[in-house]
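does this look right to u?? pyridoxal-5'-phosphate version
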Amino acid sequence: MSEQKLGLGTLAVHAGTEPDPATGARQVPIYQTTSYVFKDADHAARLFNLEEVGFIYSRLTNPTVMALANRVAALEGGAGAVCCSSGHAAQIMALFPLMGPGCNVVSSSRLYGGTITQFSQTIRRFGWSAKFVDTDDLAAVEAAIDENTRALFCETIANPGGYVTDLDAMAKIADKAGIPLIVDNTTATPFLCRPIEHGATLVVHSATKYMTGNGTVTGGVVVDSGKFDWSASDKFPSLSQPEPAYHGLNFHGALGPMAFTFHSIAIGLRDLGMTMNPQGAHYTLMGIETLGLRMERHVQNAKAVAEWLEKDPRVEGVTYAGLPSSPSYDRGQRIVPKGAGALFTVAVKGGYGSCVKLVNSLKLFSHVANLGDARSLIIHPASTTHRQLEEEQQIKAGAAPNVVRISIGIEDVADIIADLDQGLAAATS
Ligand SMILES: Cc1ncc(COP(=O)(O)O)c(C=O)c1O
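got this back:
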């Protein structure tokens, strides 16, 4: 069965999996094992030399985790993928083969707050750095790229504000500079946007969110398009030149479009150990089977809730890109034509105090630091996820003190609206 010709709904159920060859089990078994018996010494040597693909040790690969990687690669239209222990791990794993001390990533300033902290603080310990730019200002994006820039980074639908990034324009700039575009597609999922079709080289996911869809797993995935020419310049020596960390293997020369994926497994997972566990992969595989159905409902509900909120006098503004009043609306029609996701912010009259009261008053919504669950969720970013940031950074990231972020679930929309109605009454009375 050629996976390329199948629709996304079919790939979500079938891609990456076959009935278990040992038992015929129809569902992917949870291969709860750390190691795999080699047939003989020669077989072991061939596996370690990457001359034969197979399983060695579950820090590197595991059949359940591999099934998930292959399913996500198929959904995103990539050549290969690697699963990681979290979305944050996926971001480090995406940068790892590209960067070295003194290198930088040029990143959108509209990002999940944790990513801003990871990029502005933690990666500096590796000698890497990030430059944040407003991706509405394409000239500023181009100007920020210098000879040490190794990637451009953005989110398709930015958390928390629901801002839609012009991926085609970002890809054009990255192409001109000879660097890969990395897109965090967590909030859109491949059902709303496939960034590789817009020119992205790498797609990262927090599988913790919509992919699993029920708040049971912390996981991440990096998908490689397989289309970037790592040997076109001397910027990516780890991929295009003999790699001392893998007995001098030239990954691009030896593995072509699978170079990035094999590097990520053979060196990234081997040495950083940010591995997804098989049980987490199993839950995520289960979740993905219904991803398309859930995204349809998430989007339908989010649009109805955003339209209702926008008309409410207790509300100062709604950032949902599916509303014609949003500055992202036109771009959203091009980048996420099936819907602008289900995550947006709401500015509540009365500012910080009213936001806190609203969060405390809701009954159906859960007050949690998560998104993309089947349940409707709410958080006040300025006092939680974006708390580490300066107020100016919070505003740039779309997380000003007077906004709450809501992640609309798949419940009956009338119940979601009724809860918001009683919550807003309590918050603004
Ligand atoms: C858009 C986005 N990317 C990445 C992450 C990080 O993912 P994880 O929590 O799985 O590490 C998050 C977490 O909220 C996120 O919202």
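The first helix runs from residue 8 to 14. idk if thats expected tbh
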